[in-house]
């Protein structure tokens, strides 16, 4: 790996540690002021496009608020010049106690030592029963 690729891989590690701490300031410190985030779901071909630190941070904070236990278990990061990918398992509990657990990935574009674009993809999977539901049904 080249020195920029090592730096960018480390940036992805820092980013996901911040996501899992639900630390908006640390997440946004990894991104440019004009960052573009394409959410996994939304009305457009790209999902839902958000631009700039205010919109992007608000979207992340809304996710943390709606699902306080949300986490991304990273299984791999790879950087190829100005582009990167992170593979992960998304886990969360909905307000009514159902669980989400699905693989996904983010595609990144870097400018210098920061992320200027993030595009999220997550497998669509039925909600899983609340923890303890299967045991009670047995």
Can you walk through the features of this model?
By secondary structure, the protein is of the alpha+beta class. About 35% of the residues lie in helices and about 45% in strands.
Question: Mind sketching the topology for me?
Answer:
Layout: H1 3-21, H2 24-29, E1 31-44, E2 47-51, H3 52-66, E3 71-80, E4 83-93, E5 99-111, E6 114-122, H4 133-137
Parallel strand pairs: 1-6
Antiparallel strand pairs: 1-2, 3-4, 4-5, 5-6
TL;DR of this structure?
The protein is an alpha+beta fold and 138 residues long. Helix content is 33%, strand content 45%. The protein has a six-stranded mixed beta sheet with strand order 2-1-6-5-4-3.
Unreliable parts: none
What is CATH's topology name?
Nuclear Transport Factor 2, Chain: A
Beta-strand content: 35-45%
CATH class: Alpha Beta
Give the structural class: alpha+beta
What are its keywords?
138 residues; alpha+beta; Nuclear Transport Factor 2, Chain: A; six-stranded mixed beta sheet; 4 helices; 33% helix; globular
């Amino acid at each position: 790996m080249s020195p920029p690729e090592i730096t960018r891989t480390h940036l992805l590690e820092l980013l996901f540690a911040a996501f899992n701490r639900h630390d908006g300031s640390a997440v946004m410190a990894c991104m440019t002021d004009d960052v573009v985030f394409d959410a996994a779901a939304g009305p457009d071909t790209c999902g839902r496009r958000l631009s700039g630190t205010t919109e992007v941070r608000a979207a992340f904070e809304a996710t943390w608020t709606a699902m306080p236990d949300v986490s991304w278990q990273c299984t791999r990061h790879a950087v190829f010049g100005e582009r990167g990918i992170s593979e992960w398992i998304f886990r969360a509990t909905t307000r009514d106690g159902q669980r989400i657990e699905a693989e996904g990935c983010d595609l990144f574009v870097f400018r210098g030592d920061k992320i200027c674009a993030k595009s999220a993809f997550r497998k669509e999977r039925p909600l899983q029963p609340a923890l303890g539901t299967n045991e009670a049904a047995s």
